[in-house]
Structure formats: structure tokens, C-alpha cells
Amino acid sequence: MATDRATFDQVDWDQITEESDRELSVNFLGTVVSLGVLVLLMLYDHFLVTGSYDSMLGLDLGGQYTPTFAPIGWNYDVTQLDWLFAVSLVLFGFYVVLPLYQNARMTKYYWREMKRNRPAMVSLGWLIFIFVIGVLGPIVIPAPESELFLKYQPPVFMEISQNYPINCVGPVVDGACQGTMQYPLGTTQNGKDIFKIIIYGMQISMKIGFIATLIVITVGTAVGTVSAYAGGLVDEVLMRWVDIQQSFPTFILYLLILYIWGGGLFLFIVLFGLFAWEGTARYVRSNALAKTEEEYIKATQLSGASTYRIIRAHIVPNSASSIITNITLLVPAFILAEAQLAFLGLGDSAVPSWGQLISAGRSDLGFAPWITLAPGMFLFFTILAFNFLGDALLDALNPEADAESE
């Protein structure tokens, strides 16, 4: 009986490969559209709001910077970090969250494996809480401001003797000022509400984690996969460049720029993001080297697929487990690095980060320990949550590694 189905040697593999290379995934299209919207918003912010908004509406703001959303009555200004954070969220949504939905069967399998690890589940809940509050909290909660008549207010369930220079707003029992729900975590020596600083610090931590990690993962994955697949001279040149950059004193460069131009969170994120991808590149390369020897990669090469398609559609996705587990190590490392620099007085003093708050309270540990302890506990539990989650992801995504370690 005749059939119209072509045999293997009758298929035009060049044509199929070209058509495959021209395919545009939903993830790619969604990313392009979302980034396009962000670009339009940036142009609106730069040319319409800050450039001609005052003259168009006849408002006299005394030459001050006009907040981005002032025309719609929302006094919130979008900074450079906010735009970068939005870009990182778009990429995270379309290349991490959406693939989980697209691959429901594998997601359910990994979820079953994850649920067996209770510390990891608690950690996941904590990190989701930090993310949601950090993103939405500053939108509805006003920024912390100095109010000297409110300095050293104790948190709830704590008290401080009125012998210290305070103006107690809570009840006084036996000569001691009691904490109140009005300031649940107390206030600083400048009267700033620690609860508000903690909320804004969540957003700062998320910005540091997402933006810096996005830079590191993008550059490190690109260098690692290209080096592993290309091999030869390309591999040698890229790895020698990694060796050179790893030996470069990033901290000294940061101090030099800090001395010349001054510090800033934007500087910290970009500088350490661009000079911290070497370990990721080596890690991804080692995993990608193993993948290039797999039979399915050789079959794809024989089919005539382009180098770009092999790397994008096969090597990178199949190295995703190592990339994801590496993310859980990078994010807490960057958050902790910012806290350490802030504690040493080398951070951005204008940013209400956890590190700045810890640094601000170190001279008051004797009678106002909550100033340091509150952000310190949030920082500790966040770093610990990433570590627990990273271990669980490694067990779920790469069980062979766990078996080898046993």
C-alpha cells in the first residue's frame, strides 16, 4: 500500500533546521513585548514626566525632580535600580516561572521531591513572603523618616528605662518605657521606624539578589556554554580570561571608585555583577562539557542544527539544574556582601538596607539592641532559607550528585 510519508533519507533536514531556528517561543515573544513596554515607560519617564511635565501642567515644584507617577497622583519615583529590577523580574517570569507551567509533569515531580524536605518548604514560604512584602510594601508604606522626638522607642514586649534620652509614646511601668504596636520593632537613634526600614530593606535585598544574579548568570552561562561547546582555541582563550578576571581585586576597584565618585547601591550591584561571574562560568562549563558528549547532542549535530540552536535549545536547558542551584548560592552571597560593606561604612548611606540598619545600631547595643538584632535576624533567616532551598533543589534536580556524595 502506498504511503505519502517520507522516509528518513527523503527528509530535507536543512529545511527543517532552518524552520526550527526561525521559531519564536512564547517565552521569547513575551519577553520582547514586556521589555518593549518597559522601554516605553522609561522614555515616558525621561522625556515627558521629568522633561516637560511641570510646564505642561503649570506646576511649580521648585526645580525638584518630578516623581514618575506624579501625573496619576501616585508620588513614587522609579529609579535606575527599579528599571533594572523590573527587567530582572520579566526575565525571571518568562524563563523560570513560565517554564514551570509549560512543563507541568516535571514540575509536579520536582514539587513532590521538594515537599519531602520540610526545612526547604518553610524556607520557600519565607522567601516568598520576603519577595511579596519587599515588592509591594514600599508601594503602600511611606518611607521611614527621622523624628528625633521618637528616638529609641522599644519594640513590642520590650522596655527601656526612662533614664535614657527618650520621649516614651507607650505606657510607662515602674519607670520603664514599654513598647507599643505603633512601632512594633521600635525606632532608631534618629527616630526612624525600624519596621518600615525592614520592609524597605526587603526590597533592597530583592534588588541586589535579582539584578546582580541576573548579570552573573547571563554572562557566566554564555561564557561557560560557548567555551564547553566550541572547545579548542575558543575554550582556551575564554578560560584564560576567566583566570585573569578571577585574580583581579574587585574589592580594591570598588574602594577606588568609591573614593573617586562616591558609593551607591547601583555601583555595587553592577560592579560586583560584572566581576563575579567567573565561578559560574567554570561551574556551567564543567556541566556543559558532560552534556556535549551525550548522544542526543551528537544526533542534533548530525541533523544539521546550527551552533546557536544547539547551545540555546539543548545545552543550556539541560544544564539548567546546575544554573538554578548556583542561583541559590549567588543571591545570599550578594545580599551578605552588601550587608558587610554597609557595616564597614562602605555602602550607600542613603539606602535603607538591612546592612545599614545593623551598622547604625552597633554603637547602641548596650541599651538599644533591637536596632541591630531586628535586621540581623531577618538577614540571618533569609540567608539560611536560601541555603536550605539550595540543598533541596540540588537533591530534586540532580539526585545523582546526592547519591555520589553518600
Topology:
Elements: H1 13-21, H2 26-57, H3 80-102, H4 104-115, H5 118-140, E1 159-161, E2 172-173, E3 176-178, H6 194-230, H7 232-246, H8 250-261, H9 265-274, H10 278-292, H11 295-302, H12 307-318, H13 320-343, H14 354-360, H15 370-397, H16 399-405
Antiparallel strand pairs: 1-3, 2-3
Percent range for β-strand residues: under 5%
The profile of the biggest β sheet is: 3 strands, antiparallel
Helix % is 55-70%
What is the count of helical runs? 16
CATH superfamily of the domain at 194-405: MetI-like
| CATH class division of the domain at 194-405 | Mainly Alpha
Radius of gyration: 26 Å
Strand order of the largest sheet: 1-3-2
Secondary structural class? mainly alpha
Determine the N-to-C terminus distance: 57 Å
Shape: elongated
- Kindly report the average pLDDT value: 79
Could you name the CATH topology of the domain at 194-405?
Answer: MetI-like fold
Stretches with pLDDT under 50, minimum 5 residues: 1-21, 51-64, 401-406
Helices and strands, in N-to-C order? HHHHHEEEHHHHHHHHHHH
CATH architecture tag of the domain at 194-405:
Orthogonal Bundle
